[in-house]
């Protein structure tokens, strides 16, 4: 016998006031007249109902990112680039979020990785007066939005922890408008700001930290273009700790007397799975999308310029020499090199890309890349574009996927030949390790005792000596690294507010 299931809930009122009620409309009109509904219109234009019961954090964030018109830099469906819950998978596997929900820190981390500016405050890191001031600021502007993390019990609602954006503020009544992303359960509603503050003061028992609120706005500069750090796999915790804590200690304790020895100290003890931590950003597309657009060519050109600038640094030359020396024959470097060939990379990326393009993001399970073909395309006098075409098979069906490859020198077509002969054109381990070293905080190298060597290393990693494009790339990676370090929820999560500023 079929079960009818649940159809919404009756909104407990008081304390909440239904947005669509006569009183709710009155509050809206008065708040609008007072200038505290400015952010509402862009949010409501991008309003999203969470697609899974535990996706409130993802729905709230995708709604805010779209309201801020932040370009995700990758396709959603068809030719369109648009944030969707399914695309917010870099910090936590979607299957895990679906089963367990997501924490406050991981939502802030997702916002940061998506290219937004994030200021996150737990309940114990702020005051109600500060919270009220931030609510007023966000609701009187359309270039900054607030997401709150609270417990529903404070409003006599069913359920527990929840995320939703704030859409408006009524100053005289001191009430905030919650744009509840669980529209299947409760409609948008006004609540007393003091009660919302109390609801954020509860503790998320899964991590032992208070809930809170975050302010999300656009970055002044573009986010990472070619490289990114990932906290999707649990290995990021050990890798971030090694880079931020262990490396400075090792450099203090080791007797280092030249640049190669410094690199040896850093690289030899790298966690074996650190390759999951830093990656180069590949762009994938359907083969049936046809000729490359001017926009696609433009993005690829910028990536190629970043790669070129990495390879022109003095640090890159030292990394390249060290990697080719006998000292680099260690397990961690060998495991990195094993996955460095273009066919190996292309097979993995094409499978992941097929998953995204077919609506099954977050995993390449069940996808098999049958073959890859590397080719160089040139049209109408444009700069040649390197592309890897792959045929991905899943459940008996085939999907043609192209991966656009940034390269630092022009190569002839490799189609029909051994693709491994083209391995030098794409971002490889030398480039990735150089970018990673450049992104480490300056204090990393302060423990080097030899003064002359210390000056040499500081000169090699100094961001002020880098071209503007690479400088932006490195500083973004550094912000990511600092953020991830402080986002270890069972360790330094209390520093989250400082990390996101």
Automatic annotation (TrEMBL):
Where are the membrane-spanning stretches? none
Enzyme Commission no: 2.3.2.15
Q: Which Gene3D superfamilies match?
A: Phytochelatin synthase, N-terminal domain (3.90.70.30)
User: Pfam families given for it?
Assistant: Phytochelatin, Phytochelatin_C
The Peptidase C83 domain, residue ranges: 1-221
Q: Name one GO biological process term.
A: cellular detoxification of cadmium ion
Give UniProt keywords alphabetically: Acyltransferase, Cadmium, Metal-binding, Transferase
Is Metal-binding among the key words of this record? yes
| GO MF annotations in UniProt | glutathione gamma-glutamylcysteinyltransferase activity; metal ion binding
Q: Does the keyword Acyltransferase apply?
A: yes
Protein name, per record: glutathione gamma-glutamylcysteinyltransferase
What species was this sequence derived from? Aquilegia coerulea (Rocky mountain columbine)
């Amino acid at each position: 016998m079929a079960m009818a299931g649940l159809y919404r809930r009756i909104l407990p009122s008081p304390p909440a006031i239904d947005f669509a009620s006569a009183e709710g409309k009155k509050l809206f009109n008065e708040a609008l007249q007072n200038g505290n509904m400015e952010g509402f219109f862009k949010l409501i234009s991008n309003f999203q109902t969470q697609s899974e019961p535990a996706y409130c954090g993802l729905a709230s964030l995708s709604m805010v990112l779209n309201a801020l018109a932040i370009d995700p830099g990758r396709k959603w469906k068809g030719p369109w680039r648009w944030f969707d819950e399914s695309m917010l998978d870099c910090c936590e596997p979607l299957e895990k979020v679906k089963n367990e929900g997501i924490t406050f820190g991981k939502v802030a981390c997702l916002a940061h990785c998506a290219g937004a500016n994030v200021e996150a405050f737990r309940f114990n890191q702020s005051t109600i007066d500060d919270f009220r001031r931030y609510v007023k600021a966000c609701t009187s502007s359309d270039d900054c939005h607030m997401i709150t993390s609270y417990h529903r019990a404070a409003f006599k609602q069913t359920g527990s922890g929840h995320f939703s954006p704030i859409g408006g503020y009524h100053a005289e009544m001191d009430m905030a408008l919650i744009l509840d992303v669980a529209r299947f359960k409760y409609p948008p509603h006004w609540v007393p700001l003091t009660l919302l503050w109390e609801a954020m003061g509860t503790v998320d028992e899964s991590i032992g930290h208070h809930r809170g609120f975050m302010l999300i706005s656009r970055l002044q500069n573009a986010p990472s273009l070619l490289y990114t750090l990932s906290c999707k796999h649990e290995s990021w915790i050990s890798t971030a700790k090694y880079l931020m804590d262990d490396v400075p200690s090792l450099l203090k304790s080791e007797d280092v007397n030249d640049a190669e020895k410094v690199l040896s100290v850093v690289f030899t003890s790298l966690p074996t799975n650190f390759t999951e931590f830093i990656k180069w950003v590949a762009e994938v597309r359907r083969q049936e999308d046809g000729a490359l657009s001017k926009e696609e060519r433009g993005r690829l050109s910028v990536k190629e310029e970043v790669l070129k600038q990495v390879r022109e640094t003095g640090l890159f030359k030292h990394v390249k020499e060290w990697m080719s020396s006998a000292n680099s024959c260690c397990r961690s470097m060998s495991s990195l090199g094993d996955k460095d060939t273009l066919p190996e990379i292309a097979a993995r990326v094409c499978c992941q890309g097929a998953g995204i393009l077919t609506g099954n993001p977050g995993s390449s399970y069940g996808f098999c890349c049958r073959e890859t073909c590397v080719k160089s395309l040139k049209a109408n006098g444009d700069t040649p574009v390197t592309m890897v075409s792959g045929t991905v098979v899943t459940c008996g069906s085939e999907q043609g996927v192209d991966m656009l490859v940034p390269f630092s020198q022009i190569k002839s077509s490799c189609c029909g030949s051994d693709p491994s002969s083209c391995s030098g054109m794409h971002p490889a381990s030398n480039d990735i390790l150089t970018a990673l070293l450049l992104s480490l905080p300056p204090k990393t190298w302060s423990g080097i005792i030899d003064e002359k060597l210390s000056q040499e290393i500081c000169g090699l990693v100094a961001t002020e000596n880098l071209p503007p494009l690479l400088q932006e790339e490195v500083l973004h990676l550094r912000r990511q690294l600092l953020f991830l370090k402080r986002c270890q929820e069972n360790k330094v999560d209390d520093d989250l507010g400082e990390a996101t500023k």
